[in-house]
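Please go through the protein record below and explain what the tokens say about the fold. Record follows.
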Amino acid sequence: MRILNADQMREADRATIHDVGIPSIVLMENAGRQVVAAIESLYDDLAERRVAVIAGKGNNGGDGFVVARTLHQRGVDTTVFLVGQVAEVKGDARTNLDILGRLGVTVVEVADEGAWELHFSEISQHDLLVDALFGTGLKTALSGLYETVVADLNGSGIPIVSIDLPSGMSADTPDLIGDCVEASVTVTLGAPKLPLILPPAEQKSGEVVIADIGIPMGVIDQLEGPHIELVTRERLRPLVAPRAPDSHKGDYGRVVIVAGSVGKTGAAALAAQGALRSGAGLVTVACPRACQPIVAAHGLEYMTEPLDETPAGTVHFAAAETVLGLDADVLVAGPGLGRGEGVATFVREIVEKSEAPLVLDADALNAFADEPTALVGREGRDIIITPHPGEMARLAGCTADDVQADRLGIASDFARRHKLYVVLKGYRTLIATPAGRVFVNPTGSPGMATGGTGDVLSGMLGAWLTQLLDAEAACRLAVYLHGAAGELADADTGEVSMTAGDLADHIGDAVLELSARRRVPARRAQEE
């Protein structure tokens, strides 16, 4: 599902109205009715509530007028407070405002701060507020009367439903440009917008409902400009197809995981579990020789390969030849490898010479911190990197704070310039592609903020890449399932007690949930 900025939303409206032929007043009618449908689904006691619609003079206010009319026709006590004067309302919004007058819906003009002060005590007696002041067109911070209105609405303690965006937000940035409505629910129209999906603005949006108002999906897909997309289960579900009855392990790929060092063997085992739980046919962990017995003891299902090691218990640079000789459809490198010049030389040798697609995590990324220009994808071999903000900062030559301040821009720029896929981990993990597309993942849990969850993800990426043979699809699916497994583990153990192993144990549940298949014991399945 594509995430749009203000210009893209405006073009989508224009194309729908002028090219497709759906009149603008129909879109406004659809918007208002979809908002009411969302309100009805969320508030069972709507019939007993008094609703105040706080409307602006533009099209967002027009949507609010449709909401007021629809609620009135359904017997809900509804009053409209127009922040402005009736004479200032034009076009479709004016048409809908005039209809309210003919139906006897109360419309109160609030032309200045004195009028607002006079009427706010009346507004405070309502049980639900509808914010229809500003939509996607706002570019600058609110001031004057509007700033006062927003501050008072936020301080009222009454639930607020915002139409399209909480008033005061800009559709062009996830950053707050000033004060904004703190919504309980935001019903966004046609497509999601950046500030509703990414922090910090999304924290002011409440529950987000995406309303179909009649803009054809083909119009949205063809829009020019940034291509930022929300990962959805509907788009992912076809990627998890049932397996053929006569399939065998060779059909699902060979993943080699180069990981571990003395004291960090758990990272290797967790990556292997991530790959196995994600369906890889054969998994081999290549690790320093001293680590092999420990890694092997963690799991019965994967194989191990001993590598030459340094006295410090890290992989020796000469072991690159051994790794390159292994039969791998996908090579995962990095979890727990440790640092040091020998490790960096080893990793760079693998990246330069491997013909297999690569997933690089943790210390494999640190190997390029001093020479990020050497980390470049090439025709016929995909590279996926999975940095956290600190690792991304070292590759991009900036600070972690810089990365967090511009996650979209930095991830996308690095992916394009280096011709690889960036999975920038964190809240709302981002997937940036060499083609300039960016995907935002909505799944996850605060309980995932614990050591080892990233190692599980690297193994999952390797497994799905070897099965799908499509790096973009593998990234979307693995990241979504990783977050979904975290949510399921959180539900079982709680976010405080959750471990990376708990997440790995719930990958299968996440796959079943995505594919909408029930877990049924074999005996009962035969009976059914």
Observations:
- The mean pLDDT is 95.
- The chain has two domains: 2-225, 236-241+250-514.
- Residues 174 and 198 are 6 Å apart (CA to CA).
